[in-house]
Amino acid sequence: MAPLEVRCLDAFPNWLRSLGEDARALASLLEADASDASDGTKRRSAAVLNYLFKSLDLIPDGLEDLGFIDDAFVVRSAAAAIKLESEAALSDDPTGTLARLAEEAELVREFMGSEYGRLARYVTGLEQGSARGRSVSAILSDPALQREIALEVGQWADRYAAPSFARDERNLVKLRAFLLAKLPV
């Protein structure tokens, strides 16, 4: 097994286990006062949280072993984008979750190789989308809606059960195939 595959098979199950808490951290950034979180951080957080509630995402959430790994990739790619916009924005998160996620995005970049740009563009495009009838701009302009989403994220995280991600190279092949088939070119 190649070193990259070993690193992925070590990391991805952990990312699935932390997804609920990672989502909670993004929800707290969304709810933060404007003086505590930058507009870019709040915008990216709203887009990612909306993605968690999309009924049609890159990989169906119920798909054994692979369900929710796309969500973990999207969360990390968004954190990397926040870091690119402003390294200082990572300090918006006193828990350090955002900085950890941005660092972990490097493994997503390595795994995706030359196709990582497709994922990064997809994540940026989420800022124009909506889920459950809520656009990112509507979320950003309504503090009550931000609190509502944070509450929903907390409820989702309480119910979330991390799928397994067997230490099997075939999972990596299936994951890459799903992503490349679903990501816009």
List keywords for this structure.
185 residues; mainly alpha; two-stranded antiparallel sheet; 2% strand
Structural write-up:
The protein is mainly α. It has one domain. It has helices spanning 3-31, 39-52, 69-85, 97-112, 116-125, 136-140, 143-159, 169-182, and strands spanning 130-131, 134-135. A two-stranded antiparallel sheet has the order 1-2. The model has no long low-confidence stretch (mean pLDDT 92).
Structure described in brief:
With 185 residues, the chain is mainly alpha-helical. The chain has one domain.
**pLDDT < 50 stretches:** none
Count the beta strands: 2
**What is the number of helices?**
8
Strand order of the largest sheet: 1-2
Integer average pLDDT: 92
- Which geometry do the CA atoms define? globular
Q: Give the topology string: H per helix, E per strand.
A: HHHHHEEHHH
Residues in β-strands, percent: under 5%
Structural class: mainly alpha
List the helices and strands and how they pair.
Blueprint: H1 3-31, H2 39-52, H3 69-85, H4 97-112, H5 116-125, E1 130-131, E2 134-135, H6 136-140, H7 143-159, H8 169-182
